[in-house]
């Protein structure tokens, strides 16, 4: 690995080379290390090396893929900063970490992004069984000061309303791609699915019932062990029925097994592989642009947020909404409920009337 100054970084005296992860590029190895990976070969009996390697590969999947990627990017950025300033990345000096936070803040990173940067640094120190520089008062004070000065209100994408969804559905083209997009939008909204969950759906995950379908979310952000969770999607009268839209897409595309949502090329040919998660956001933005909605305010999460806020406005309680959305935190659910019921009750009703 080379620092930004161009010098090649070798191991320092006394440092041991950690066990590499099989199949992980050397430049990303540090981002995938766990406490197991950092065990020095010299301390292991020869017969254990293979099993420890396999154990490390399992441990590397303890977190969600997006979390692993975010930590990897954050760790690489930190190591580049440390090397540029002649500092050690591991173990890190608290004062250097505090300076790094100030540097990231000056570059315009959000408080949430700063927390990811700290989490990545803490993760590597925890894996190496080193004291956490992120717990040092100097680092904590800098973090608190940045959050107090800038505020911590999250920047979230807008929730799709049923009226906006109806507009988008009506404006879809009548071709095969439009049939797919109709099913994707309605199923994503009706089941409050994350975009990664939408594209992971298989035909085998759908159970058809008289009153709708049950879709199996085999693995999700809040279910890393793959226990799975069935979500009911109710049939509805009229053109916004997610069950009818799903059936129409599967029949039109002649899909009987495997991924449900797939690419459709310009000649109307359906691919074999599932869409990417990024493609879900593109479908939403493309449909929104057709009816003049602000595409910068919408993303893949808008379907899921739309379900929660709409359910809240219809009087659904926290437990009813959470049964579908499967949020690990009630805090986010309460934000959705507040957004959906913001103008439901006026404490000054009738007071300011002349």
Keyphrases for this structure?
354 residues; mainly alpha; DNA polymerase, domain 1; hpI Integrase, Chain A; three-stranded antiparallel sheet; two-stranded antiparallel ribbon; 7% strand; globular; disordered N terminus
Largest sheet: 3 strands, antiparallel
Mean pLDDT: 80
* Percent in helix: 40-55%
Categorize the overall geometry: globular
Q: How would you write the strand order of the largest sheet?
A: 1-2-3
Order of helices and strands: HHHHHHHHEEEHEEHHHH
CATH class of the largest domain: Mainly Alpha
Q: Are there runs of 5+ residues with pLDDT below 50, and where?
A: 1-33
| Discrete helix count | 13
Q: Supply the CATH architecture of the largest domain.
A: Orthogonal Bundle
Rg (CA only)? 25 Å
The CATH H-level homologous superfamily of the largest domain:
Intergrase catalytic core
Task: Write the CATH fold name of the largest domain.
Answer: hpI Integrase, Chain A
Strand content: 5-15%
Structural classification: mainly alpha
- How many distinct domains? 2
Distance between the termini: 74 Å
Number of strands: 5
Protein name: Integrase
GO molecular function: DNA binding
GO biological process, one term: DNA recombination
InterPro entries: CB, DNA_brk_join_enz, Integrase-like_cat_sf, Integrase_catalytic, Integrase_recombinase_N, Integrase_SAM-like_N, Phage_Integrase-like_Recomb
Write the layout of secondary structure elements.
Elements: H1 49-59, H2 65-84, H3 94-106, H4 111-127, H5 137-150, H6 162-170, H7 176-190, H8 195-200, E1 206-209, E2 212-217, E3 229-234, H9 242-253, E4 262-264, E5 270-274, H10 277-290, H11 301-313, H12 318-325, H13 330-340
Antiparallel strand pairs: 1-2, 2-3, 4-5
Helix pairs in contact: 2-4, 3-4, 3-5, 7-9, 7-11, 11-13
Region (Disordered): 1-25
GO molecular function, one term: DNA binding
Biased composition (Basic residues): 1-13
């Amino acid at each position: 690995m080379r620092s930004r100054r161009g010098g090649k970084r070798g191991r320092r005296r006394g440092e041991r080379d950690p066990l590499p992860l099989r199949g992980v590029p050397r430049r990303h190895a540090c981002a995938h290390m766990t406490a197991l990976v950092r065990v020095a070969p010299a301390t292991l009996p020869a017969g254990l090396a293979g099993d420890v390697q396999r154990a490390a590969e399992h441990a590397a999947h303890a977190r969600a893929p997006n979390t692993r990627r975010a930590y990897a990017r954050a760790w690489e950025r930190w190591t580049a900063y440390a090397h540029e300033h002649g500092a050690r990345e591991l173990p890190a000096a608290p004062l250097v970490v505090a300076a790094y936070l100030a540097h990231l803040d000056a570059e315009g990173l959000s408080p949430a992004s700063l927390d990811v940067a700290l989490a990545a640094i803490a993760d590597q120190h925890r894996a190496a069984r080193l004291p956490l520089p992120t717990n040092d008062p100097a680092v904590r004070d800098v973090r608190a000061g940045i959050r107090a000065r800038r505020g911590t209100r999250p920047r979230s994408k807008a929730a799709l309303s049923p009226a906006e969804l109806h507009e988008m559905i009506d404006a879809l083209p009548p071709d095969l791609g439009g049939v797919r997009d109709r099913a994707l939008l309605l199923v994503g909204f009706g089941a409050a699915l994350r975009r990664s969950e939408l594209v992971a759906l298989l035909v085998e995950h759908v159970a058809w019932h008289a009153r709708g379908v049950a879709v199996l979310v085999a693995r999700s952000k809040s279910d890393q062990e793959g226990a799975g969770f069935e979500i009911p999607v109710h049939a509805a009268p009229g053109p916004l029925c997610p069950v009818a839209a799903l059936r129409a897409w599967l029949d039109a595309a002649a899909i009987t097994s495997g991924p449900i949502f797939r690419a459709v090329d310009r000649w109307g040919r359906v691919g074999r592989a599932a869409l990417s998660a990024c493609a879900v956001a593109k479908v939403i933005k493309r449909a929104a642009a057709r009816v003049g909605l602000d595409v910068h305010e919408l993303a893949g999460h808008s379907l899921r947020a739309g379900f929660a806020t709409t359910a809240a406005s219809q009087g659904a309680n926290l437990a009813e909404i959470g049964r579908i959305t499967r949020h690990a935190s009630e805090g986010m659910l309460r934000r959705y409920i507040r957004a959906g019921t913001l103008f439901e009750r006026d404490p000054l009703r009738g007071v300011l009337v002349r």
